[in-house]
Design a protein that fits this description.
The chain is α/β, with parallel strands linked by helices. The protein contains 14 helices and 10 strands. Helix 4 (about 90-105) links the parallel strand 4 (about 85-90) and strand 5. Helix 4 packs across helix 5 (about 115-125) and helix 10 crosses helix 13 (about 295-300). The longest helix is centred in the middle third of the chain and has 19 residues, at about 200-215. The chain binds nicotinamide-adenine-dinucleotide and zinc ion. Nicotinamide-adenine-dinucleotide binds near residues 28, 129, 137 and 155.
């Protein structure tokens, strides 16, 4: 159940109604002082037991070791199967707390309160959770649906712009693979309204969640569509050693994968221009830090989880809002699109 409402923290009773009397808030060390401490205090005023557990922020802490530490702390606090986890944070926290809730005492209730834009429109939707391993991201995890997802755009007031961008890219992706009219409203959405408290932003978040939920409900075949831009994007993140953020890399990945669709005669060149314009409007830099080695990038893409028989696959789009599917692309077409990327997006 997704509930989108303002000032969620001002009504702590509504967060916990129907979920028992013991609550473990899980957060990270950035979000905890801004919102976690206050939620703990407010819950403690109600007739329930509440605890706050936080871990250092950042992807590098999305590990089994962090999960184990949190579990130890919860067990030492005497928390049993009658405890409800409240995940309060970005996607790292919702992934971590979701996985923990799925396995703690063989599964306990879970509420997600995403505080980053990416977590609101992407990470908290679809039931996937997990932690990273040195051999790859999200390799260990589960599918576990939360009892509630509470979304409040007010949290975004404290989110830095570069983090907002990561969310905007996924929203634009949802328009491209799922809903042409949504894409058009992102095109129309005035740039000045990037300010976080706008009701329009709230509506756009709600629609983005709806698109992702609908795609997920159609099963794994369709879920692949959410990987649009990500075969190239993940490889770029990896090759630039994360100098490009996830959003920056996926934005470029969406352009490269759109260029492949143009080269194959599916997508109109003018649609690629529209995708580029909307990404630029949401302040995505669309620049490579330096020229990329095409062979090195190809070698990384071969390891992508969607590859079959060492051949990478890409989500190709026919038109904005109308994807084809996830498929192999002949190497010369891939190389041509990557060369286009170097020529168009590298200033060196
Ligand atoms: N489960 C899924 O389906 C799914 C989908 C997409 C992404 N993810 C995962 O989500 C993670 C990325 O999520 P993210 O971009 O939210 O990263 P994140 O959780 O690291 O949050 C980004 C940064 O913003 C801070 N932050 C969060 N909310 C804030 C707020 N309101 N005010 C100030 N600072 C705030 C965090 O402390 C962190 O420093 C990745 O681990 C990714 O694998 C999961
Ligand atoms: Zn992504």
């Amino acid at each position: 159940m997704i509930i989108i409402r303002q000032n969620i923290l001002k009504d702590p009773k509504s967060i916990i109604t129907g979920l028992g009397s013991k609550f473990a808030i899980i957060s990270d060390e950035n979000v905890s002082p801004i919102y976690g401490q206050a939620l703990l205090k407010d819950l403690s005023k109600l007739d329930v037991e509440a605890f706050l557990f936080s871990f250092p922020s950042g992807e590098i802490y999305k590990t089994r070791a962090t999960k184990e530490r949190l579990e130890d702390q919860m067990l030492e606090a005497g928390l049993g199967p009658d405890t409800c986890v409240i995940a309060l944070g970005g996607g790292v926290v919702t992934d971590m707390a979701g996985f923990l809730a799925a396995t703690y005492c063989r599964g306990i209730p879970l509420v997600l309160i995403p505080t980053s834009l990416l977590a609101m429109v992407d990470a908290s939707i679809g039931g996937k959770n997990g932690v990273d391993h040195p051999l790859g991201k999200n390799l260990i995890g589960s599918l576990y649906e939360p009892d509630k997802i509470l979304i409040d755009a007010g949290f975004l007031k404290s989110l830095p712009l570069h983090e907002l961008r990561n969310g905007f890219v996924e929203m634009i992706k949802h328009g491209i693979v799922g809903d042409q009219r949504y894409f058009e409203s992102l095109e129309k959405y005035p740039s000045g309204l990037l300010s976080a408290d706008s009701p329009l932003l709230e509506r756009m978040i709600a629609q983005s969640c709806r698109i992702k939920s609908q795609i997920v409900q159609q099963g794994t075949g369709k879920r692949h569509l959410l990987n649009f831009g990500h075969t190239v994007g993940h490889a770029l993140e990896n090759l630039t050693q994360y100098e490009l953020s996830h959003g920056e890399a996926v934005a470029i990945g969406m352009l490269v994968e759109s260029q492949m669709a143009v080269n194959l005669g599916h997508l109109k060149p003018s649609s690629l221009d529209r995708i580029k314009a909307v990404l630029a409007k949401y302040t995505l830099p669309l620049k490579l830090p330096s020229e990329i080695s095409i062979d090195a990038l190809l070698n990384i893409m071969i390891l992508d989880k969607k590859s079959i028989n060492s051949r990478p696959r890409f989500v190709l789009i026919n038109e904005i809002g109308s994807p084809l599917n996830c498929r192999h692309v002949e190497e010369p077409v891939i190389k041509n699109a990557l060369q286009w990327m170097n020529d168009a997006l590298c200033s060196h």
